[in-house]
Structure formats: C-alpha cells, structure tokens
Design goal:
Helix content is about 35%, strand content about 30%. By secondary structure, it is of the alpha+beta class. Strands 4-3-2-1-5 form a five-stranded antiparallel sheet.
Length: about 110
C-alpha cells in the first residue's frame, strides 16, 4: 500500500513530498522551495524506468533537467526527519499536479 508524506530539508530550504510504494521506495517525488513555494522537482519512478528501458541517455538527461532527479533508496526513517508528517493522497495529487504544471508537463 502506498504512503504519502513530507519532510523538510533545512540546508536547502526545501519541502520534500513523497509517494512511497508498498516496499517503501519513492514512486513519485516533489520538491518545493520553501522561500517562494516554487516546485523544483516532480519526478516519477514509472517515467524514469520507461526512459531507462526505452530511450537513450539524452532523453534521461532532458527529463532530469526538466523534472529533477527521483530520490533513490528506501524511505525508511522518514518520520525522524525535520517537520515530517503524513499527508493525504489528495494533498499529494494536488502538489504533484501543481509541480508538473509549473515544470512544464511534457513527459
């Protein structure tokens, strides 16, 4: 079962929002800059795997330049991060849609 949560990365003043799959890995990842609420990342594991399997390095580079880099590794311990909290699927979907619009959804 998927889980949705947020944390705060103080060094970069970024809010990080995650949709984690049933194994605890990031399925989708949104980063929003704290000072101006500007999205800087909206990456999807499904899209990254599709590019890995069906495209070239240039396509992956374009994706990462537009949508940022998906968080890797298990999301264990997120509850211990600064300002961590669970969020609803609806809140994540709203943030995802806003971030993709802001970053130019063309993937």
């Amino acid at each position: 079962m998927a889980t949705w949560f947020r944390t705060y990365y103080e060094d970069e003043a970024l809010w990080l929002y995650f949709e984690a799959d049933d194994e605890g890995w990031a399925a989708r990842h949104v980063e929003v800059r704290g000072q101006d609420s500007r999205p800087v990342t909206a990456a999807s594991l499904e899209e990254v795997l599709h590019l890995r399997d069906h495209a070239d390095r240039a396509a992956m580079f374009r994706y990462e330049r537009q949508y940022g880099v998906l968080a890797e590794g298990p999301m264990d311990g997120w509850q211990d991060q600064p300002r961590a909290a669970g969020i609803s699927a609806e809140e994540f979907e709203r943030l995802w849609a806003e971030a993709r619009r802001a970053l130019g959804d063309s993937a």
